[in-house]
Amino acid sequence: MSRLDPTGRPIPPKLPGTLADAAVAYAQAGIPIFPCVPGEKNPLIKRGFHRATTDLRQVRRWWRRTPEANIGIATGRGVEVLDVDVHAIGTGFPLLRTLHRSGQISGWAQAVRSPAGGIHLYYPTDPAREQRSWARGTAHLDFRGLGGYIIAPPSIVTTDHGPRRYELIATGRSPRPIDADAIREFLTPSPAPASTTAAPARGGAGAERLVAWVARLPEGNRNAGLFWAACRLVEAGLTEAETHAVLEPAALATALDAREIAATIRSAHRTASIAPDPAESRTGASSDLTGMGR
Where does the record place the region Disordered (predicted)? Predict the structure, then answer.
């Protein structure tokens, strides 16, 4: 059985500078690890994370053979990770803020900045509940639980801008396990009727159908549904003000408050715009962590 810290803080506070020494530090702390290809995220050994171990002799043997091997942590027992991605076509930070405002997440155990500018948020596991890994590419958010792994600091990955390191940037207080299934459902609202899937005309019948659909959203799906509908209006060419004017009355009728509605529509415009603001990708991590940590 894994001896991972039940608080979900697997990363030792003071890691040695070399990957080989850091790997030993993880193993000594009781954190099962395995080697990954230097400069990459793929496992270096057969069966990958299934062979994660705390056996110091094995760990030293692996890193003696490949001193620059990256460090992988098997997730799902002791630690789970919400992976917030930053891609050229979009970023997961707007939805991360929505998850925080809606109460789906509250803080984190540890936060790691990834080489691409994203964030890995570490959480403790709930011993009574097993949660499998899943990915939501369109949301730019992934969950790493059972059947998954994460690359840990101080691993280095080669990016378009050269080698970049995974860095521990924050430690939270009193972290709680997250409900990954609830988050996945929140990010995947019940589909709208088929007639609403086409981009609605500006203020036309398509927009009216979206308004009717938002007004009928059930509790637990309302914020994600509003976000989905707002994205469709953005794709149809409506401005943020026009989207707000179209959807706010229906959203208010579902008991969402005005500030929440405005923030969700703003996030939709940032996420679904054809040319996302590059500053969002670069600065989203630090600003989001500052806001969430208050």
Answer: 272-294
